[in-house]
Amino acid sequence: MTTMKKRSGARSLFARRAALGALILTPALGLTLGAASPAQADHDVKLGLMLPYSGTYAALGESITNGLKLAIEQEGGSLGGHGVEYVALDSEANPSKAPQNMSRLVKGDGVDVVIGPVHSGVAMGMLRVAKQTGAITIIPNAGLEAATNQLCMPNVFRTSFSMWQNSYPMGQVAYDQGHRRIVTITWDYAGGKEDLAGFEQAFTEAGGEIVEQILVPFPSTEFQTYLAQIASIAPDAVYTFFAGGGGVGFVRDYAAAGLNDSIPLYGSGFLTDGNLVALGDAADGVQTTMHYAETLDTPQNQAFVAAYQEAYGEVPDTYAVQGYDAGKMLAQAYGAIDGEPTREALIAALGSVQLDSPRGPVSFSESHHPIQNVYLREVKDGEHHVTAIASPQLEVPDSACPMKS
Amino acid sequence: MDLAFFGVQLLNGLQYGLLLFLIASGLTLIFGIMGIINLAHGAMYMIGAYLAFDLTQRLGNFWLAILIAVPIAVILGLVIERLFLDTLYKRDHLYQVLLTFGLILVLNEAQRIIWGGDVHSVALPAPFDGSIALTDNLQYPVYRLFVAAVCLALAGAIYWVIRHTRLGIVIRAGAVNREMVEGLGINIRTLFTLIFSVGVALSAFAGMMAAPLSSITPGMGDSILITCFVVVVIGGIGSIKGAFFGALLIGMAETFGPVLIPSLASMLIYLIMALVLLIKPRGLFA
Is the ipTM of this complex over 0.85? Predict the structure, then answer.
């Protein structure tokens, strides 16, 4: 049986009461209250979705949910023979509400697995509760390094990426393409700096030099002054991390300033992902590294894209794949458990999952970070063309994680 | 810093400052004359950008889109003033702040419902889609120069209206003593409606002009609102002249700051504001 309850995050006591009222009216009440002991053999698997369904990141939350549900539907709507029940909660991408929301899912609804979040700030709050309660958590996006490094724990997995994993392979690529002096630029915030650190590490290890690291106040999209600075330094190339509106703004301004004629632009995949229409021909020739590309020419990806389009009428993005793999991961893990799916059995099974994902082979490191291919992509005619595997089956060091031997 | 680099940054600062003035002028007008702190001013900037994007898509022509979008913005301002603000004039400032804050939420959500969460852009419109070479590896889009020229022209026009027309006399008088102006038989209600619509439309117009320059994103008005408040406070609340020089000062600070003192870049404009307020507590031109 698949039932769906959708609740908004508690905006006030009143909203919470209203939500409770709505709950009482649903036939699933018995299940909600009777779920004190998780993972009984004959009861449904309860998946708690803690994703943004409103605000700036709503589209990402929808993509992940769509991907996850598609994967589970492909498994006949069940996980290893257990029915699935979804409890969706709007995280609002609001870090301050994260611990409370996570507690509600884990203690209040008694979910077996939490899937979320999108936002790294929310992840910090969730991880605290995951530590206290031991709740099994699958992170389908948030790229913060700490989740599988300093704060790693046996019950937390991710199906996404970390900033380092996406940017590190580009350092060698840029060096191999003949660049020696590079300027890096990003927003002055943790995500951007973690991304730059990966690139800079690889590029200097290869023998290149970072001549300047420019940090733009977050979330400013006024780039003119930095473009003039880059022009006056005249480096061999520029590496950048911006996403969303910042990505579009930077790449367009860079092209309008004519810099792309003399100084090639490199970046993390988020620079252009989901932005290709808005970028137009300004992105032509921009090279990025990323663990996925919708144009990836493999049978697995083509089948996934076709199925996703059939189900939702749009081309899947990276977030959809991350949600999809979370679903496939759960299906494989539940399927592998003989007998009672206890918490310990599930954690062990999740850790040894190996996916034949649309993005290529995926397995999990001891810190529960995906070991996966990172692709080199070049934008041509408004599409990502995968030109090479920049780093095959790359494992993130996560050297501060005690689970790493 | 060589001379060419300095010149380029001067141009950047000027252009950014002039755009800031266009947004801040409406904010300061509305506060100076009506005593209303319009927190939704940034949201109107965003609505302007989205209108420019949407209508350019539909009509295939940016200039035509602006021609239609400006009246829409004026009407939106008119409706907000008549329907919502009108009932709150006699109340405390706090009610108006609460209302305009609510308007931010409503406008942001309306944006999401109508246009979704995707990032959009508008192509540089002809005949200003070219660029001129500044140095051997840096070009400057002609459209940015055009925007600067338009902002400068509008600044001149606003100055002229306020200094040299009958309407300007009423506006200046209204800013000094509202009751006395009413006592002289001038209908302050009509004046308020006019000021609010024009002020809000100025912000939306700035959003339209900025649309082809950068990216169009949800919440793009929120950060510009803060910067504009800094401009208005520095210049002196209610002073158009103050908004003009305040905007240029902030434009220059945001341009030269990150290059000269990168460690202070994100707080420089607030430091400047604090400094100005220490020396002139009511702003430069109040």
Answer: yes
